[in-house]
Amino acid sequence: MNLSSRRRFLMLAPAAAPALWTVAARPDPAHGAGTAPFYPPVRRATPIVFPRDHGAHPPWRTEWWYLTGWLERLDGPHRGAPAGVQVTFFRSRTRHDPADPSRFAPTQLLLAHAALALPEEARLTHAQRAARAGFGLAEFSVEDTAVSIGDWSLERGRDDRYRARVRDERLALDLEFVPGAPPVLQGENGYSRKGPLETQASCYYSRPQLRVSGRITAGGEHAAVRGVAWLDHEWSSELLDPSADGWDWTGLNLDDGSALMAFRIRRRDGSPLWSQARWVDGRGRALRPDPQPVFTARRRWTSPRTGARYPVAMTLAAGTRTLTLEPLFDDQELDARASAGAVYWEGAVRALEAGRPVGRGYLELTGYAGALRL
Hints:
Blueprint: E1 2-3, E2 62-73, E3 82-93, E4 108-118, E5 123-132, E6 138-140, E7 146-149, E8 152-156, E9 162-167, E10 171-178, E11 184-185, E12 191-193, E13 201-218, E14 221-236, E15 244-254, E16 259-267, E17 272-280, E18 294-302, E19 309-318, E20 321-327, E21 333-335, E22 343-353, E23 356-366, E24 372-373
């Protein structure tokens, strides 16, 4: 099956999500025309309820917990230098018969990747994993955030603090993330449209302005770190609209305590098919009305590995404000084909306004590396 590159919203096997997608609303040939879809759709009226919805949603096709952040190294040979960090876990429900009594039945898959953006390396230090759920090797909880593959894990404690641990020969992370406000429900109370059809949607909430502390290891360097991060959690069963080619997404933590999420889904000619933005204040309260974001490429970088040309420097207009996004460094292309099934650009960026630094965050660019073969 061929799909053109897609976006980190769950309507597709996203740039970061497992490459196993089916449109939920179509008749399921395995169950006959007119029967209920194999994967449930996301519906507008379904409320998001915590702490339950911090956990996994196994009936839906795909789900992810996506952490991105900026770190400052507090010791070691690069003391004071910035670093970007990503930790992402994906859950994918396969089309294997859920009634199969075998413990070996691969009904749920877990995938993960982690990356450090270190300026002295000038490209990402990256590791990834994939496993079927079960047998204590890969697990998820439906009650709260608790997902693991071997000695990689992401958990939320009763004090609302998140803990991420990653161990790999390329890198190691042991980080704590402390929220300063309740979750931000994206879209309409968590129902987030991603296309012209109501079924093209995900359940989506964010945790901006997470305070980060802990330790990182890469390239033989061990460093204590602190910084600010962003968590996205989404689940859905939908494909990207057939006319779409990819998306641009950003989550920005601004220095005044506010935050901005913005995305656009692009048609194949580059024009926007669907877009949304949400500003929140320092208490996590959404500032209404939501503006329509306008992304404009300022500078492109060409990958020496894939030939993809990414707009790594962007201008983002959202409401009355216009921000300039500049990458920590250009080569933040992520090859996640061994886990998520895609190549895309996911990079740490600075946000400037009228030439002044006003915040930091991450920019995700998908669909620029060509069609994906699943």
